[in-house]
Amino acid sequence: MVQSQGKPSMPVLPGPMHEGIAQPKDGPSDSSNAASNATTQLTLTGPQDLLNSTKGHDLPGRASFDSLSSDLGRPSLSTEGNRSVFSLAQNYRVGNSSESLDTAYSADLTLPPIQLPPIQHLPHHNQDSDSDEDTDQDRIAAQQAEEGSIIVDSDDLGTDDGYGSDTNTTASTSLADSVREFIYENGRRYHKFREGMYNFPNDDVEQQREDMKHQMVKLLCGKLFFAPIDRPQQVLDIGTGTGIWAIEMADEFVGAEVLGVDLSPHQPDWVPPNVKFMIDDVESPWLHPSNHFDYIHSRHTVMAIKDWPRLMRRAQEPGGWFEMQEVYHFPISVNDSMPPNHPIARYWSLINEGLERLGVDFHAVAGGKLANKMRDAGFVNVTERVLQIPIGTWPKNRILKTVGLYWRTILLDGIQAIALGPLTRGLGWSQSDVEMLLMEVRRAYKDNSCLLYMPFHIIYGQKPA
Question: Could you tell me which residues belong to the region Disordered (predicted)?
Fold first, then answer.
């Protein structure tokens, strides 16, 4: 219960959220006497409830509560055991009057002890449900994604609307001036450090999209990695981006030191104590000695890395593991209904052509190429798994349907970011030419009838001991 105190204090009248509170007696009364004699008990679910409860009532001797305004102080909550005390100061003014009333509210809440569930390092998407149905959905989703046997939902083959267009924002972080400098092209922000090594934006919109990609992969795979590691000690995350994978990995392995490397300084400041970030180019000479890292992770870097064999030969401890998780960004139709001149097919063909002129092999992950490069670099126990990432909501399985919604949103949100660099830098297009192309591609992505997906390659191998 809440006790209203103050010199003077204000009577609080019942509102729709506080039924059962006694109203003041009818008839005129002196407002100051009413205020000084009032001691009202009420239950609040939040500070704003106090104002909500007074709307439409009259303040005796003064004005309608509809003209009441107030300044809320900062609420405070102190806890000792299962006893919590909530306090709030508030100043009231009526209309344009210069008079005001100061009140203070406190609540002594005794709550039952809270039983917390055991901590799980990597909860699945259905962590709040223990039903057999959810478990079956996970199992079926993983099986269909890997075997290429995704069942089609015949009720979801139409066109989806309601997708917004790209928006642009900016951000910066406190590092050396030479590192945090950016360049701007066609309304998007790019890294200045080692300019041109990465041909995609690094602005806030793109960072949010990268985090969404991480959540999509977790939903599809159910874990952060596939390599058979038990207790890694030195972990490297190549192309760490916002650092979300590195942070979650550090939380899972508190005894490991996790280093995230990226060309852009947009990682958070508040991170676990066993996480560090470095702004550097992983294709340049490394500062760390050879045989330093026992687990190296790389994800979504296939359209950035130019020399995979050299990267694979870098500082890997004997017995350590190297894992790559890469999407082959060329859509495949389950029912072979996408013609070569389809807007999406043409879009990705142009991206491929532009990246080739910029020195990037768009098809590096396809056809087991990365796995073979890993074997050529001397790795053993090389394993490759390929999952299907649906584009859109056409799968029957609930988990894969959600994954498809995630992925299509990611592709639509990044449709401009992906195209601008390869097409303007690589092919010499103007921004207006790019935007004309994107109009028809956006429409095509919303059509589920082609049953599109992209292969997701998970490749890992071990350096011989």
Answer: 1-80, 114-171
Q: Is 436 helix (H, G, I), strand (E, B) or coil?
A: helix
Nearest to 72 by CA among 53, 99, 92: 92
List beta partners, residue 159: 447
DSSP string of 401-425?
A: HHHHHHHHHHHHHTHHHHHHIIIII
Instruction: Give the integer Cα–Cα distance in Å for 65 and 91.
Output: 14
Q: Is the pTM for the entire model greater than 0.70?
A: no
Q: Is 288 left (phi over 0), alpha (psi -120 to 50) or beta?
A: beta
The structural domains of the chain, ordered by start, are 2-110 (no CATH), 133-462 (3.40.50.150)
Which string of DSSP letters, residue by residue, matches 91-116? Answer: EEEETT-S-EEEEEEEEEEE-PPP-P
d(CA 415, CA 393): 18
State whether the Cα torsion 389-394-396-399 is positive or negative.
positive
Mean pLDDT, consecutive 10-residue stretches, the chain (465 aa), reads: 41 38 41 39 40 42 39 51 51 52 52 45 41 66 72 65 38 45 67 56 78 94 95 93 93 95 77 88 73 91 84 84 94 90 94 90 90 94 96 94 95 90 91 93 91 96 91
